[in-house]
Design a protein that fits this description.
Largest sheet: 6 strands, antiparallel
CATH class: Mainly Beta
CATH topology: Jelly Rolls
Radius of gyration: 13 Å
Shape: globular
Number of strands: 10
Number of helices: 0
Strand content: over 45%
CATH superfamily: Jelly Rolls
Mean pLDDT: 94
CATH architecture: Sandwich
Structural class: mainly beta
């Protein structure tokens, strides 16, 4: 459990789903962001990512542009992109997956 991740607000549970070497993927993370919570702005420094909404109602801000993040949306983050995530619900957690892969 992480609290106020990257200067955000509230708790975020992060579970690693990938075990062992699985190139080109470096991580698959299941995340649950508390109601009303946020993950603060941070730069994608090592690997490009895809953030996939699984449940709840939120938004991903990529370089300041707002993208919906729910069960019907995914967001691509190239190296150097700045990401923030916000749970827009005061009652339900925001659930999402993060898939990291080696860049080209």
């Amino acid at each position: 459990m992480h609290t106020n991740l990257f200067g955000g607000v509230g708790a975020v549970r992060v579970l690693s789903l990938l075990q062992g070497a699985s190139a080109p993927f470096t991580a698959v993370l299941a995340c649950e962001l508390a109601p009303g919570g946020s993950v603060g702005a941070h730069v994608q420094q090592e690997f490009p990512e895809v953030v996939i909404g699984v449940g709840g109602e939120g938004e991903a801000r990529v370089n300041g542009a707002v993208h919906p993040l729910d069960a019907f949306h995914a967001v691509y983050l190239p190296l150097g992109a700045v990401l923030e995530i916000v749970n827009q619900s005061d009652h339900e957690p925001l659930r999402y997956l993060i898939v990291k892969a080696l860049g080209t």
